[in-house]
Write a structure and sequence with these properties.
The complex is a heterodimer.
Chain A: H1 2-7, H2 9-27, H3 32-38, H4 41-72, H5 79-97, H6 100-121, H7 130-152, E1 168-177, E2 184-190, H8 191-213, H9 215-225, H10 227-232, H11 237-262, H12 269-284, H13 289-309, H14 314-328
Antiparallel strand pairs in A: 1-2
Helix pairs in contact in A: 4-8, 4-11, 4-12, 4-13, 5-6, 5-7, 5-11, 5-12, 6-11, 8-9, 9-11, 12-13, 12-14, 13-14
Chain B: H1 2-23, E1 26-34, H2 40-55, E2 60-61, E3 64-73, H3 77-89, E4 95-97, H4 102-112, E5 119-121, H5 129-132, E6 139-140, H6 146-149, H7 153-161, E7 165-171, H8 174-189, E8 193-200, H9 208-213, E9 220-224, H10 227-239, E10 245-248, H11 255-258, E11 272-275, H12 284-296, H13 308-326, H14 336-344, E12 347-349, E13 352-356, E14 362-373, E15 379-390, H15 398-404, H16 414-418
Parallel strand pairs in B: 1-3, 1-4, 4-5, 5-6, 7-8, 7-9, 9-10
Antiparallel strand pairs in B: 2-3, 11-14, 12-13, 13-14, 14-15
Helix pairs in contact in B: 2-13, 3-4, 7-8, 13-14
Classes of the chains: A mainly alpha, B alpha/beta.
Chain lengths: ~350, ~425
């Protein structure tokens, strides 16, 4: 850290100032001039938090996608279908048992199992033929989408969060100070989104720890770097592939429950989230967990800020970012080690 | 020799009208309807209702047998025009009933100008421009348009509910603008004030930031969203702990939203909306129509009650039957008799009396509904009022209406309307 600051004193200063301004915007009450120009502070904070929590959802979907790509070079275009399937199953389980939490492990296992089967019986048959695997995954996504349409129909489903997560909670961030009474208004924000953000951070950190601190993680990282050498050194790489595919699919399924809770589930959500995770991994860097986290955060916040401050052009911002990344840093913001 | 020649000519002369009679013994109707894409289920209901209306007259109009040719579209305007051309050129239909959605309607208005000898009767497409901007002389619309559907709701909100200050959130596309315009004209004239307007892109899934921007000091919030967007909004609206009263646009509280699974839609309870029909209307014309519909098709092959789309196609077919009967089934030449009969038609439809104006656009009734708990745990709508004789120009003169401008984000100027201008 000290080294970086010594080498780039001016750049470090600019970054420090930007961080200070950002922290001030978040924590300090806004003066009236700023409110007049930018609208109430509440709006800015909501857009920011909305972006971060949306980023958490994107991260959950994209994490499995990027791992599978990094290790197996399979662009699994059926990933969005696994997301939607997980959401529908989560709806069925949580409305049958009345418990939102029980849906998560069940969906993780069921959708993870489906992922295992897909890898074992389909993708492993065409090992090394990336284009064929990709085309087959498109086929699977279409079949799954039609099966889901047949079974669950075209209506929207929304999953009910448990009672203690319903409604808003107060965050220790000042929203505004009442000019007359001097009383402080704390920011109120939907509780379920805060908890989902925390859960996503926990899952992300756990994934990072597994990848960087365990023997299995070492195998996966070695596989990402050079899977032929790994196979040649006697590791049963097909097993590693199975574990990663199953895990990636399971996490996508759980993300479906999250998506169904704070948005809704309907036909077409599968491609929307597939597109989102593609953009996220392109921006973040294919095959990197930290990259997926950063990419998801950037895309989520951009989307929300765009909707608030420039609604007409908001749809293009995420794709502009993607185009810029592809033009100037085609390997993504954080590239997986090669 | 001369005699035989004469006889032959006489025989030929006798046969000619006979030949013409045989050819004109049937009337061929082309049904242009969306059977793919988002409105597929509604399109199927449209076809069912055409069949129902024809069955009621035994598939015979003025002694002629009726045949229908269904041309499926996917709601894309270019497909619609291609299918319409096929109906006219290959299937040689006498006239067309359709299409279903707004942009298709505008495309068909332009296509109708290229076939001036054939009548086109709109299915249920609701874009204002179709019969307002440069209308085609042979395009008839017996359903109300999107802005008419919003009329009457504003007066109800101001006069009955006492809600005078609203903020609005509506979908950022043609139907969103048009439906909002109908509400706003009426609402502002009744003395209401629109404090702030938000326009959301279609397919918007995350409304958190917009919900935070909603002003606190309003009586209600107008929502012009539909389908999944509506569900997402309601879900996040509840999660944010907001409880302001809501006013719904025409597609905010339709069957797709009210039958959605989960609790999101509960936020709609008590929300007034407006549209071209009320499911629980007690008018005998409506109840007997619903009964005929339910009896004509088994329960698993139809909706519980006719949908908006079905109703539109039913009324269009009914108009065609009544006008053709008045014209003696004459669809020859440039169909002048048929057109004349359509122009003069006073249609007693399931949703009340419908007449058409000089732009061949319907004048009719708008129903005000309120969302309530249904008997089966689902939500349903209850009729609370109606606005009769809603014209294309929303009760203004064409000049006044034209001065408002075409539907867009900034139409209409509320303060000006409130002041009486």
């Amino acid at each position: 850290m000290d080294d970086i600051i010594k080498r780039n004193p001016i750049r470090s200063l600019i970054v420090a100032i930007l961080i200070a301004i950002f922290l001030w915007l978040v924590f300090a009450p806004w003066p009236p001039d700023l409110v007049a120009k930018w609208g109430r502070k509440q709006i800015f904070l909501n857009a920011l938090l909305g972006g971060i929590t949306l980023g958490a959802l994107y991260f959950l979907v994209a994490a499995g996608f990027t791992l599978i790509f990094g290790l197996m070079r399979v662009v699994n275009l059926a990933h969005g279908s696994l997301f939607l399937l997980g959401g529908y199953l989560g709806y069925e389980i949580s409305s049958a048992t009345g418990s939102w939490f029980i849906a998560f492990p069940v969906v993780f296992v069921v959708v993870g199992l489906l992922g295992l089967l897909m890898q074992r019986f389909i993708f492993s048959k065409m090992e090394g033929e990336e284009l064929r695997q990709t085309l087959v995954s498109i086929g699977i996504s279409i079949v799954l989408a039609d099966l889901m349409l047949w079974f669950w129909g075209g209506q929207s489903y929304s999953i009910l969060a448990p009672a203690f997560l319903q409604g808003p909670m107060e965050l220790p961030i000042i929203n505004s100070i009442n000019a007359n009474t001097g009383a402080t208004n704390w920011l109120r924000y939907p509780a379920v989104r805060i908890w989902i953000l925390i859960a996503a951070i926990v899952i992300g950190v756990a994934m990072w720890l597994v990848l960087n601190r365990t023997a299995l993680g070492m195998l996966i990282r070695a596989g990402v770097d050079d899977r032929e050498m790994l196979a040649a050194s006697g590791v049963r790489i097909q097993l590693v592939f199975l574990v990663v595919f199953g895990f990636g699919a399971g996490v996508a399924g759980m993300a479906g429950i999250v998506g169904g809770t704070f948005q809704s589930l309907s036909p077409g959500e599968d491609t929307r989230f597939l597109l989102a995770s593609l953009v996220v991994v392109i921006v973040g860097g294919m095959g990197s967990i930290v990259g997926a986290a950063i990419g998801a955060l950037v895309i989520g916040v951009t989307e929300q800020m765009g909707f608030v401050y420039a609604p007409t052009y908001s749809v293009v911002f995420t794709f502009l970012i993607m185009a810029a990344v592809l033009a100037f840093r085609p390997q993504g913001l954080l590239e997986a080690r090669r | 020799m001369r005699k035989t020649l004469l006889a032959a000519v006489a025989a030929a002369a006798l046969m000619l009208p006979g030949a013409a009679w045989a050819q004109g013994g049937t009337i061929k109707i082309g049904i242009l309807v969306a059977l793919e894409g988002a409105f597929a289920a509604g399109g199927q209901d449209g076809v069912r209702n055409v069949e129902l209306a024809l069955k009621e007259v035994n598939n015979t109009i003025a002694g002629k047998k009726v045949e229908i040719v269904v041309a499926p579209t996917d709601t894309k305007p270019d497909t619609t025009v291609r299918m319409a051309r096929k109906l006219v050129e290959q299937d040689k239909v006498d006239f067309i009933i359709g299409p279903l959605s707004g942009s298709e309607g505008i495309a068909m208005r332009d296509f109708a100008k290229t076939i001036p000898d054939k009548v086109v009767i709109n299915g249920i497409s609701g874009a204002l421009e179709t019969t307002w901007v440069d209308p085609a002389p042979n395009f008839y619309r017996f359903n109300l348009d999107g802005s008419q559907w919003g009329y009457g709701l504003g007066t109800y909100a101001v006069k009955t509910k006492g809600w005078k200050r609203v903020a609005t959130i509506a979908a950022d596309y043609s139907f969103g603008y048009t439906n909002f315009m109908g509400f706003a004209v009426d609402f502002c004239k009744a003395g209401g004030d629109i404090v702030q307007r938000f326009w959301q892109p279609l397919g918007q899934a995350d409304f958190g930031a917009i919900i935070a921007q909603l002003p606190d000091n309003v009586d209600a919030i107008y929502l012009g969203l539909g389908g999944t967007d509506a569900i997402n909004f309601l879900n996040q609206y509840q999660q944010a702990g907001e409880k302001t009263r809501l006013i719904g646009g025409t597609i905010m509280a339709d069957q797709t939203v009210l039958t959605a699974r989960g609790r999101a839609k509960d936020a709609l309870k008590g929300t007034p909306t407006s549209g071209p029909f009320a499911a629980d209307n007690t008018d005998p014309a409506w109840t007997s129509y619903v009964k005929r519909y339910q009896e004509a098709f088994p329960a698993n092959q139809r909706f519980p009650t006719p949908s908006l789309f079905g109703l539109g196609y039913y009324v269009a077919t009914q108009a065609a039957i009544k006008a053709l009967e008045a014209a003696g089934g004459d669809v020859s030449g440039n169909q002048a008799k048929f057109k004349d009969a359509l122009n003069k038609l006073q249609l007693d439809s399931p949703v009340g009396k419908i007449t058409i104006n000089e732009n061949r656009q319907a004048t009719g009734t708008v129903f005000i509904n309120e969302v309530v708990d249904g008997p089966d745990g689902n939500l349903t709508s209850k009729m609370v009022g109606r606005a009769d004789n809603v014209t294309q120009t929303l009760g203004m003169t064409p000049e006044q209406f034209r001065a408002l401008g075409l539907p867009s984000r900034n139409v209409v100027d509320c303060a000006k309307l409130r002041a009486g201008g």
